[in-house]
């Protein structure tokens, strides 16, 4: 499976020549994109044109459950004066597709199969297929990244957006640390906390594996990886903010 960006880049120059608005470009790209479709290898100049089309930098944050990724992302957004998107991504998808957000919540960051979609579709007319969810998610994330000055949490955003125009961060912690935080801060019993952490970790790992064919834990996919065992969210956010300013010469 080729990366999403390769599929987009293959058609970028043609649409640029047609002088569409950016919203039109995104729509055209997503229509052309077919899930798991192959695309010809893009030329270097096309790649650079695509990268340069994103005028403002942004931040993506991948996170392990219980690592503090959301709190860190929110703190970074406050420090930089950026917008923060987590479940707000689903709100944007709901607005653009007129789907109910409660339905989208059931499929968010979860891997699926065609058979599951078929069975669920027969049983539940409100079910959202993985193609619909994933295509709309990509469209929303690309649009937000294009506007820039946003912090986007999870959902493989670092694999969807151009690497050079964003700071891509992974927040992690040892499993036992994450479980203990679920016990301390959410009041779960130890066994419940363990199951919750395991479930979310599996869902997120399989989501990235299915839709991007990547290992979410591989450090090569990020500018910065932070183990939060000995950092507060505010301390970790300061590291992210410093790295962002360094990458884009904003110091």
Describe it.
- The protein is an alpha/beta fold.
- It has two domains: 53 residues, no CATH class; 193 residues, Rossmann fold (3-Layer(aba) Sandwich), CATH 3.40.50.
- It is 57% helix and 10% strand.
- Helix 1 crosses helix 2, helix 4 packs across helix 12 and helix 10 packs across helix 11.
- It is globular.
Query: By helix and strand content, what is the structural category?
Result: alpha/beta
Mean pLDDT: 76
Q: Summarize the main sheet.
A: 5 strands, parallel
Give unreliable regions as ranges.
1-20, 32-47
CATH topology (fold) name of the largest domain: Rossmann fold
Strand order of the largest sheet: 2-3-1-4-5
Question: What is the β-strand count?
Answer: 5
The overall number of domains is 2
Provide the CATH top-level class of the largest domain: Alpha Beta
- Following the backbone from N to C, one meets helices and strands in this order, namely HHHEHEHHHHEHEHHEH
Ordered list of secondary-structure elements with their pairings:
Blueprint: H1 4-17, H2 22-32, H3 44-52, E1 58-63, H4 69-80, E2 83-85, H5 88-97, H6 101-105, H7 114-123, H8 130-147, E3 150-153, H9 157-160, E4 166-172, H10 175-186, H11 190-212, E5 224-227, H12 233-247
Parallel strand pairs: 1-3, 1-4, 2-3, 4-5
Helix pairs in contact: 1-2, 1-3, 2-8, 4-12, 5-8, 10-11
């Amino acid at each position: 499976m080729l990366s999403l960006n390769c599929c987009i880049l293959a058609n970028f120059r043609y649409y640029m020549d047609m002088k569409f608005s950016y919203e039109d470009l995104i729509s055209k790209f997503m229509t052309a994109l077919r899930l798991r479709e192959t695309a010809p290898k893009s030329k270097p100049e096309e790649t650079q044109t695509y990268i340069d089309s994103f005028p403002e930098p942004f931040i993506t944050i991948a996170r392990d459950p219980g690592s503090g990724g959301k709190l860190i992302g929110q703190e970074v957004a406050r420090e930089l004066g950026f917008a923060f998107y987590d479940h707000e991504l689903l709100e944007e998808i709901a607005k653009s597709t007129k789907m109910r957000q409660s339905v989208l919540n059931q499929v968010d960051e979860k891997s699926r199969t065609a058979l599951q979609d078929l069975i669920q579709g027969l049983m539940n007319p409100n079910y959202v297929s993985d193609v619909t969810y994933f295509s709309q998610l990509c469209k929303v994330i690309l649009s937000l990244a294009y506007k820039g000055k946003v912090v986007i949490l999870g959902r493989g955003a670092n694999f969807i957006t151009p690497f050079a125009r964003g700071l891509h961060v992974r927040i992690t912690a040892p499993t036992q640390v994450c479980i203990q935080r679920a016990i301390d801060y959410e009041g779960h019993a130890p066994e419940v906390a363990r199951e919750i952490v395991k479930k979310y970790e599996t869902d997120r790992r399989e989501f990235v594996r299915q839709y991007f064919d990547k290992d979410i834990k591989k450090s090569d996919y990020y500018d910065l990886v932070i183990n939060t065992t000995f950092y507060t969210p505010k301390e970790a956010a300061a590291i992210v903010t410093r790295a962002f300013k360094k990458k884009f010469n904003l110091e």
